[in-house]
Amino acid sequence: MSTFSRRKLITGGVVAAAGATGLAVAVKLADHYGLIPPDAGGIYGPGEALTYAAQRLLTRHSMAREFSRSQISAKPLMNEVDPLGDEFKRLQDGRFADWKLAVDGMVARPRSFSLEELKSYPQRSHITMIQCEEGWSYIAEWIGAPLSRVLGVAGALPQARYVVYRSIQADWWESIDMADALHPQTLLAYGMNGDDIPVGFGGPLRMRVARQVGYKSVKYITRITVTDSLKQFGKGLGSASPEAGYAWFAGI
Amino acid sequence: MAEAVRSRHSLLVRVTHWIMALAFLALLVTGLEIVVSHPRFYWGEVGNVNTPVLFKIPIPASRRLVPTGYGYLLPDQNGWSRYLHFQSAWILVLTGLLYVGVGTFNGHFRRNVFPARSEITAKSLLGSVIQHLRFARPGPDEAWSYNVLQRVAYLAVIFVLFPMIIWTGLAMSPSFVSAVPAAVNLLGGQQSARTLHFVLTWVLVLFLVIHLLMIFLAGFWDRVRAMITGRAAEPLERV
Fold first, then answer.
1. What is the pTM of this model?
2. CA–CA dist B31, B84 (Å, integer)
3. What does B100-113 look like in DSSP terms, one character per residue?
4. For residue A178, what are the contacts with CB-CB under 8 A and spacing of at least 6?
5. What is the pLDDT of residues A197-230, one digit of tens each?
6. CB distance from B38 to chain A under 8 Å?
7. Is residue B51 less than 8 Å (CB to CB) from chain A?
8. Which CATH number fits domain B2-236: 1.10.238.10, 1.20.950.20, 1.10.340.30, 3.20.20.70?
9. Cβ(B222)–Cβ(B13) under 8 Å?
10. Domain chopping of chain B, boundaries
């Protein structure tokens, strides 16, 4: 009986040690291949890591569903917007002619872009669904310059792993990995349904991330920072969302 | 010694049962928390407060965007609810796969869950339904084997309801459906998937209520002990 228990104990110990080592190796490998999200530290970390890793293995190049013109929502729902401040008001009075998008960080040529310059690049549009994490949704056409084009003009360096983007609303900043940043449907959008984006929907410039829920499509974009690590931004969780208790990866 | 060998429920069944029970409870609570932020349901691809509603739950919401008629908001718990919902979903799916995988190979389903061919007759099923409707306390043999209605119910939960609720959940993920668009297109749209996910939740809750009711009827502590320790009272003829 006692030898049986001892054998069981040893076997159990070996299995547990092998399991722990295997898990550690798996985590290390996953991190190497960029499959661990920046907010994987907390108690919900394992779930987030599984979701993000599974999504990146399955959906790196997949395209968000696009809809026909007849499916565009007649009355898209405008989410609530906090007061935008004096600087926004000033720019709005000038019909956003002075709106600037700064691009910095790991780029060969840090610089600013005017809306006019963004509009001079080959335009891309898609009719996609925007889903709020609350549960509601609408379909709209988004028109803009692919983020990949702007990153190309600024000369994003090969070691870049994430793109951080900020709103004129100081509390709003987000980031995406290069799979989403270079994705053909990720737009610096200046148009919606054939017109300029209304201010309530993020005009004059909204980051449109088609494969993630609405809160990644930040409104009023003023600055983009290319980086190889998210540790030095905010609390190091990747964006403002995890700091407010929401997942960084919102493709679900 | 015989008692130690003979276990009412195998270790696999007992461990996976409780892990999945906890994961399901977490999914239920967090799922309802998420619904509270927008307690309205739609059919088709899109839905918001500007579109026709299929049905709404007459409760206050946790977000200002929804006109509920109540003058106040419920606490907003969406952030951690979403984190926990998806983590619990992973736990439930992985544990469920282990249960179904091992259960298929070690004969658990064949022995304990699939009804015997002789039981799948209208007469046998009807007899079992009548017995249940009488709330008859099950005989001692049922401490060691599932009855036919129980088997059918478990099969429906394991092979129909859980796969459906996982499917409708995945169909709401914009990223997942970018790779597998059929997952949402077959359901008629993303809002249809959300509505079906909600309806399936209540079907599973109905199962849970009946499951608990039956356990109370059969003897709560006997059944719970059997699912924790594996021990159950030996039926007389076997002693």
1. 0.92
2. 9
3. HHHHHHTTHIIIII
4. A160, A161, A162, A163
5. 999 999 999 999 999 999 999 999 999 999 999 9
6. yes
7. yes
8. 1.20.950.20
9. no
10. 2-236
In CATH terms, the superfamily for domain A70-243 is: Oxidoreductase, molybdopterin-binding domain (3.90.420.10)
**Helices H / strands E in chain A, number of each:** 7, 10
Whether B86 and chain A come into contact, CB under 8 Å, resolves to yes
Torsion of CA B11, B17, B20, B21, to 10 degrees: -140
**Domain boundary assignment for chain A:** 70-243
Sorted by sequence, the CB contacts under 8 Å of residue B134 that are 6+ apart come out as none
Q: Mind telling me how many Å the CA of A194 is from chain B's nearest CA?
A: 20
Q: How far apart are CA A164 and CA A156, in angstroms?
A: 13
- CA separation for the pair A248, A251 (Å, rounded): 9
Structure tokens at A116: 């006019």
Cα(B183)–Cα(A162) distance, rounded to whole angstroms? 29
pLDDT tens-digit series, residues B109-141: 999 999 888 888 888 888 888 888 888 888 777
